[in-house]
Write a structure and sequence with these properties.
2 domains; TIM Barrel; 252 residues; six-stranded parallel β-sheet; alpha/beta
C-alpha cells in the first residue's frame, strides 16, 4: 500500500512538472513573443542610418551647476544637442533654457513634474506634458515636438497619449550612466564603445563628471567620422516603422 501511494505521489509530481514545462514553452514560443512585441507600442530608441550620424541628449531635471559649461563645450566643437527639460526646471532656470535655445540646441519636453507616467491616467499625463510644453514655448518661442518620459518608464497608455497630441517619445540606445557618478574615463569608454550610426546618447546636466568626459567623447567620435545632429534631424521623415528593439526604420 505504501509503495502504491509513493508511486501515485511521484506520478502527480511528474505530471505537474510536465504541465509547467508545457506552459513555459507556450509562453516563450517565438511566434507568441513576436505577436506580443508587435502589439506593444514603443518609443524611438535609435534610428536606422547608413551615415555616421548620431545625436547626443541631456536630461535636465534637478541641478544647474554646469549648464553653461556644457553649452561652451558643445560650442567649442560646433555640436548641437537636444536637451530634455522638466517644467519645474524651466520655472527655476528660465535664463538657462533661453541660453540653450539661443545657442542653437533643441529644448524638448521631459514632463512638467518628473512623475512616474505609467501610473497616471491618460488625462493626467497629457495635462502634465502640455504644461511643460507651455513653459518651454513661453521661454524659447518654440513648442516641443519630442518628449523623454521620466525614468525611461512607459507603457502603451503613455506612448499612445503622447502620440495623440502630435509628439514623439524618445529613449536612447547608449547610456553614459553619468548619473552614477562614474569617472570621466568610464563615461568616455562606455559611450565611445557603444555608439553606432543612428545612436541616441543619454547624458544628464548636473552630473559630476560629464563636463570632464564630454570633450574627449566628442573628439574621439569626430575623429571616427561621426557627425552630430539634434534628435529631430536624426529622425526619419515620411513613412517608417519601429522594430522590436525601438529602432526607427524606413518603411519598406
Amino acid at each position: 500500500m505504501k509503495l502504491i501511494l509513493v508511486r501515485r505521489k511521484l506520478l502527480a509530481v511528474l505530471a505537474c512538472l510536465a504541465a509547467g514545462a508545457l506552459m513555459f514553452a507556450l509562453v516563450n514560443h517565438p511566434a507568441i513573443l513576436g505577436a506580443s512585441a508587435a502589439a506593444r507600442q514603443l518609443p524611438i530608441y535609435c534610428v536606422q542610418r547608413d551615415q555616421k550620424m548620431i545625436s547626443i541628449s541631456f536630461d535636465a531635471a534637478w541641478g544647474n551647476e554646469d549648464t553653461q559649461q556644457l553649452i561652451d563645450i558643445l560650442e567649442q566643437y560646433q555640436v548641437k544637442a537636444t536637451f530634455f527639460v522638466v517644467g519645474q526646471w524651466v520655472d527655476k532656470y528660465p535664463e538657462s533654457v533661453k541660453a540653450l535655445a539661443d545657442a542653437g540646441h533643441e529644448v524638448m519636453n521631459h514632463s512638467d513634474t518628473h512623475p512616474h507616467m505609467n501610473q497616471m491616467s491618460r488625462e493626467e499625463l497629457i495635462a502634465d506634458v502640455e504644461a511643460c510644453n507651455d513653459k518651454i514655448e513661453a521661454v524659447t518661442g518654440i513648442r516641443p515636438t519630442l518628449i523623454r518620459p521620466p525614468y525611461g518608464e512607459y507603457n502603451d497608455t503613455v506612448i499612445s497619449a503622447i502620440r495623440s497630441i502630435g509628439m514623439e517619445p524618445i529613449q536612447w540606445d547608449v547610456d553614459s550612466l553619468d548619473w552614477k557618478d562614474l569617472s570621466a574615463g568610464e563615461i568616455t569608454q562606455r559611450v565611445t564603445s557603444k555608439v553606432q550610426p543612428g545612436s541616441i546618447v543619454l547624458f544628464h546636466n548636473a552630473a559630476l563628471h560629464t563636463p570632464e568626459a564630454l570633450p574627449t567623447i566628442l573628439e574621439t567620435l569626430l575623429q571616427q567620422g561621426y557627425t552630430f545632429v539634434p534628435i529631430s534631424q536624426l529622425l526619419l521623415q515620411g513613412d517608417y516603422t519601429i522594430d522590436h528593439t525601438g529602432r526607427q526604420c524606413p518603411a519598406e
